[in-house]
Q: What sequence folds into this?
C-alpha cells in the first residue's frame, strides 16, 4: 500500500474536532463495573480454548517528578521505598493471573509502561523479570517483542546494558522537546546528552528498535524551535517516532493547571509545526503509520502495514493482533477473548484486592457481536487506511452496505472533500484524509452516535 500523507490546512481546520484515539473499540468510556473478577475469569477460560499466544503489560506508576503536560496514570514521588510493596503485589497478581492461563501459551509480547519503569532499581528490575519468567513462558529473543518506556533522566548506559541482559529488545524514549524554555515551562529538564547516552547504549547493546516521543503544542514552542529538536532526533536515526499533539485539559488533569495557558502556541502555530514536521520526516525517509506515528520503511510497523497485518491496542500500533493481552498492575487494561478488563485505579484499592486474594479487575466490557464487527472495521481503517467490503462481509456474514448504511451516509461529506473514496468494493482513505482518520472511524462508532453534549476526548489534530 502507498503510505504517504497530505497536509490540507483548510480541511484540518474544518474537521478538527474531539474524538477517540481508538486504542480500543468500544473505548474505555463505555467500561462498566458490572464486569468483575468472575466475568474476567470466564473470559480467560474461553481464551484458553483458542490457544492464542499472550501479551503482558506491566504498569509501573511511579515518577520521580511530575511533567506538567502529563495525562498518564502516575504517582509522582521521590520515595523509592514505595516500589517494594508495589512489586510484592505485582508478584502476587502474576501468580493469580498465570493460574488462569494454560502453560503452553507463550508470551510473544511484553511491555513495561508507566509512570517511569526505570524508577525501579536494577535489582528490582531483574527480580520482576525473573518472577515473570517463573509464572509465564516467554518467547525467545528472536521472536519475542519485549519493550520498555525509558525516561533518559532515570537511565544510563549501565541501565540499558542490564535491560538488554534481562530480555528487552525494544525501547521508547520520552524526549518531548530539547528547548530549555519549553522544558522549564513543563517541569521536564532533560539534556540532549542524557538522551544520546541512552540511545548510543541501546545501539551498542543490540536493541532492535528505538522509538522517540515528541510533543507539539507545549508552551513557547514555535516552528523554528521544534524543528531544531526534530533535526537532532533525525540525526540519531530512530526506527520510529511518535509526534503527539498536546491536549490541554486542565479540568481533567491537575498537573496541567500549572501550565500558563497564555504561553501555549496559537492553534495556527500548532498546525504549522505539524505541517513542517510531516514534511521534514517524509523528506528524511519516514513513512506515516497513522495516529501520530512515523517509522522507517523497513521497521516492523511499516512492513506490517504494507502486508495488512498491523493492529492497534492499548499500547498503540502493534504487530501482534493474535495475542490476548494481560494487564498487570494498578490501572492496567487487559484484552482477553471478547472482553476488556481494567484493574483498580487507586493504589490502596489495588493493594486491598491483592491482599484479599482477589484479582483487582473492577470494570470492563464484554463485547457484543455489533461491537466486534465495528471494532474490525475501525481497526482496518485506522491501521491500513482501507478495507475490502467483501472481506468484512464474509468475515461477519453481513451485507456491508446495508449493515453500515448510516455510517456510509456520514462519509458522504468526507467523500466530497476528498478525504475518502467509497465504491461498491472498498473504502479507501486518501492521503489528505489520513491525518483525519479518527474522524472517518467515528462514522462507524455506534456509541458516539447516541451521545449528546461534550464527549471528553482530545482534539483529533
A:
Amino acid at each position: 500500500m502507498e503510505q504517504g500523507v497530505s497536509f490540507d490546512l483548510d480541511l484540518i481546520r474544518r474537521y478538527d474536532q474531539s474524538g477517540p484515539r481508538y486504542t480500543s473499540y468500544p473505548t474505555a468510556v463505555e467500561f462498566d463495573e458490572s464486569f468483575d473478577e468472575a466475568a474476567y475469569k470466564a473470559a480467560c477460560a474461553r481464551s484458553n480454548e483458542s490457544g492464542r499466544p499472550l501479551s503482558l503489560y506491566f504498569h509501573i506508576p511511579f515518577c520521580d517528578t511530575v511533567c506538567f503536560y502529563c495525562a498518564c496514570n502516575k504517582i509522582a514521588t521521590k520515595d523509592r521505598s514505595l516500589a517494594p510493596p508495589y512489586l510484592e503485589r505485582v508478584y502476587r497478581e502474576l501468580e493469580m493471573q498465570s493460574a488462569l492461563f494454560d502453560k503452553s501459551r507463550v508470551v510473544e509480547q511484553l511491555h513495561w509502561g508507566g509512570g517511569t519503569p526505570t524508577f525501579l532499581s536494577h535489582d528490582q528490575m531483574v527480580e520482576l523479570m525473573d518472577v515473570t519468567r517463573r509464572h509465564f513462558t516467554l518467547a525467545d529473543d528472536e521472536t519475542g517483542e519485549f519493550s520498555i518506556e525509558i525516561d533518559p533522566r532515570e537511565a544510563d548506559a549501565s541501565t540499558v546494558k542490564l535491560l538488554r541482559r534481562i530480555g528487552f529488545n525494544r525501547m521508547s524514549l520520552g524526549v518531548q522537546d530539547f528547548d530549555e524554555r519549553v522544558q522549564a515551562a513543563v517541569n521536564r529538564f532533560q539534556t540532549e546528552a542524557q538522551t544520546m547516552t541512552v540511545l548510543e547504549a541501546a545501539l551498542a547493546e543490540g536493541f532492535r528498535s528505538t522509538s522517540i516521543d515528541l510533543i507539539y503544542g507545549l508552551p513557547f514552542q514555535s516552528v523554528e524551535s521544534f524543528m531544531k529538536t526534530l533535526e537532532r532526533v533525525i540525526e540519531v536515526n530512530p526506527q520510529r517516532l511518535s509526534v503527539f499533539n498536546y491536549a490541554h485539559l486542565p479540568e481533567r488533569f491537575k498537573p496541567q493547571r500549572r501550565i500558563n495557558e497564555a504561553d501555549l502556541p496559537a492553534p495556527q502555530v500548532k498546525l504549522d509545526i505539524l505541517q513542517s514536521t510531516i514534511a521534514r520526516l517524509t523528506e528524511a525517509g519516514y513513512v506515516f503509520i497513522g495516529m501520530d506515528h512515523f517509522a522507517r520503511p523497513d521497521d516492523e510497523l511499516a512492513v506490517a502495514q504494507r502486508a495488512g497485518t498491523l493492529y492497534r491496542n492499548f499500547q498503540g500500533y502493534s504487530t501482534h493482533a493474535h495475542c490476548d493481552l494481560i494487564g498487570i498492575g494498578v490501572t492496567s487494561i487487559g484484552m482477553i477473548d471478547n472482553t476488556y478488563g481494567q484493574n483498580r485505579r487507586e493504589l490502596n484499592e489495588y493493594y486491598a484486592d491483592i491482599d484479599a486474594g482477589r484479582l483487582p479487575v473492577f470494570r470492563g466490557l464484554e463485547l457484543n457481536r455489533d461491537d466486534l464487527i465495528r471494532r474490525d472495521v475501525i481497526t482496518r481503517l485506522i491501521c491500513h487506511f482501507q478495507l475490502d467490503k467483501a472481506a468484512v462481509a464474509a468475515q461477519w456474514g453481513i451485507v456491508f452496505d446495508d449493515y453500515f448504511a448510516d455510517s456510509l451516509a456520514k462519509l458522504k461529506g468526507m467523500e466530497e472533500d476528498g478525504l475518502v473514496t467509497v465504491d461498491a468494493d472498498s473504502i479507501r482513505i486518501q492521503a489528505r484524509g489520513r491525518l483525519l482518520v479518527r474522524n472517518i472511524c467515528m462514522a462507524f462508532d455506534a456509541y458516539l452516535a447516541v451521545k449528546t453534549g461534550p464527549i471528553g476526548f482530545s482534539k483529533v489534530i
